[in-house]
Amino acid sequence: MIYKHDPASIKGFLEDTSNLKTGNTPGVFFPETTDELSDLLKSAVKEHRRFTIAGNGTGTTGGRIPLGDHVISMQKLDRIGELAELSRDKAIITVQAGALLDDIQKKVEQSGWFYPPDPTEKLCFIGSTIANNSSGARSFKYGPTRKHISRILVVLPQGDLLDLPRGECLADEHGMFHFNLPVTGSLTFKRPQYRMPDTSKHNAGYFSEEEMDLIDLFIGSEGTLGVIVEADLMLIPLPIGVISSLVYFRKLDDLFTFVTLLKDPKNLVTPRAIEFFDHHSLEFLASKYPDVPLDSCGAIFLEQETTPETQENDLDALFERMESCNTMTDESWMALDRDEQARLREFRHALPLIVNDWLSRQQESKISTDMAVPDGAFRELFDFYRNGCEEHGFVYIIFGHIGNAHVHLNILPRNREEFLKGKSLYREFIAKALSLGGTLSAEHGIGKLKSEYLVEMYHEQGIEEMVRIKKCLDPFLILNIGNLIPVAYLETE
User: Which residue from 10, 141, 155, 362 lies 20 to 30 Å from 435 (Cα-Cα)?
Assistant: First the structure.
């Protein structure tokens, strides 16, 4: 077991992309085996230690930043196993939690297989993506990480190892889980009874549904119930080809009609990703890409899997939909080969870098939303975002996963007054999204930054249900205190 407590070694664990500045820790443990991690947790109560579990620092909600607790870094647990083909269209690969998503995806693709989850940040740890139920652009077709995990190995807060293949431990008809552990003994608890939002993406609080699988309680629990150390990932055959395109529009109504057509299950165009850039996003991108048409109100990026046999028909269907929605066809960007697709992917991912560079010349940090709503309510939320920002004269951008009724609004304050107004408006955005049946977080999770808002979504009763489960699995409150569940609720009996 490696342990470091010098300031130089600790510094990197006090930050992620959340801009949270209050992190501090006595030191960082680097377990190199599952047994070392188990032993560390077994001794936690005796040694008067609490732990914050650290991913690779790519999160946006401060989840890995310790507020006085010791840190457990997962980076040494990074083994990637060999693929096991189960059939012509199914394979699995066993990976440890500290393996990089990028390394996993490259390895499976070299063997002709495909791991569909596609969070924007490729340098995240796979264990973090499972603990956060991460998603991304391809979630429109493939869903979030949860749908692609067939087994996890969890180290529980008292040191027990819980090996959970999917389908092995289900809630009974009363919503109860029952299982036995060597250290903790017999455990029985009830799944949360709150209602999940009717959104295609949701990543706020513990998962719950009738007859649910215990594995799904840990997936998305943000490390508050146990430490995921190993997982079996489900793979599918690598798609033969992809059509990528960036389609510009002069009118928002035409853009929204186009998205509606793309999402129609009877549509001949069947994208795996549908992404949105508003006019302000395109203005930022134009600073690096001068071909961006500034008379466009917005653009849709889409990807569709294809084959040599179907590509011509797929393109014809796409152009037909484009023409019917009055797209700026001549200015739009079609990428059919790998090099051109790589350039288009670079364009798609350039926006945050350009915006962050602009922000670095300001005095305040951005204010970002991560809410999603049911499909039928999306335009109302979008207009609410836009009108609120326009009324205050903010610099802002709206972009992201429009296929899942989930876009990110970034307010970009130029001074302290705008920052404070933006924070106040952010609360209005939360209230609006929740009133429309939406979720507080669709993909980034709750972490430390958003735990106070979770009460607005689930109310006190829902938070208390999460506390009940947390204290059943973690009775001494060892793991990730401050993440997900507001601390004040953990301190009450």
Answer: 141
Query: What is the spatial distance between Cα 453 and Cα 427, in angstroms, rounded to a whole number?
Result: 9
Q: Strand order in 51-54's β-sheet?
A: 2-4, 28-30, 70-73, 51-54
The one-letter code for the residue type at 436 is L
Domain containing residue 372: CATH number = 3.40.462.10
* Structural domain of 150: 84-238
CATH number at residue 203: 3.30.465.10
The CATH number for 25's domain is 3.30.43.10
Taking each continuous run of H as one helix and of E as one strand, the counts in the chain are 14, 19
∠ Cα 35 181 195 (to 5°): 110
Q: Which residues pair with 242 in a beta bridge?
A: 305
Are residues 144 and 211 both part of a single domain? yes
Q: Token pair for residue 72?
A: 């457990």
Residues recorded for the chain: 493
Q: HSE on the CB side for 178, CA within 13 Å?
A: 4
* Residue carrying the six token digits 């979008």: 382
Q: How far is the C-alpha of 423 from the C-alpha of 117, rounded, in Å?
A: 31
Cβ(275)–Cβ(302) below 8 Å:
yes
Q: Which helix (H) or strand (E) holds 163?
A: strand 161-165
Q: How far apart are CA 214 and CA 179, in angstroms?
A: 10
For residue 175, is pLDDT > 90? yes
Q: How many domains does the chain contain in total? A: 3
Whether 350 maps to a domain, the answer reads yes
Considering the domain architecture, whether residues 271 and 297 belong to the same structural domain is answered as yes
41, 63: one domain: yes
33 and 119 inside one domain: no
398 contacts: CB under 8 Å, gap ≥ 6: 276, 278, 280, 281, 382, 385, 386, 407, 408, 409, 410
Q: What is the pLDDT of residues 299-332, one digit of tens each?
A: 999 999 999 999 999 999 999 999 999 999 999 9
Question: Average pLDDT of 116-132?
Answer: 90
Between CA 160 and CA 139 the distance in angstroms is 33
Contacts of 44 (CB under 8 A, 6+ apart): 50, 51, 157, 476, 478
Q: Rounded to whole angstroms, how far apart are CA atoms 292 and 300?
A: 13
Cβ-based neighbour number of residue 427 at 10 Å: 11
- For residues 262-285, give the mean pLDDT: 93
Closest CA to 403 of 332, 292, 301: 301
Residues 256 and 397 in one domain: yes
| Nearest residue to 159 (alpha-carbon basis) of 178, 132, 184 | 184
pTM: 0.93
Q: What is the pLDDT of residues 29-72, one digit of tens each?
A: 999 999 999 999 999 999 999 999 998 888 878 888 999 999 99
Answer whether residue 493 shows pLDDT above 60: no
Is residue 477 in some structural domain? Answer: no
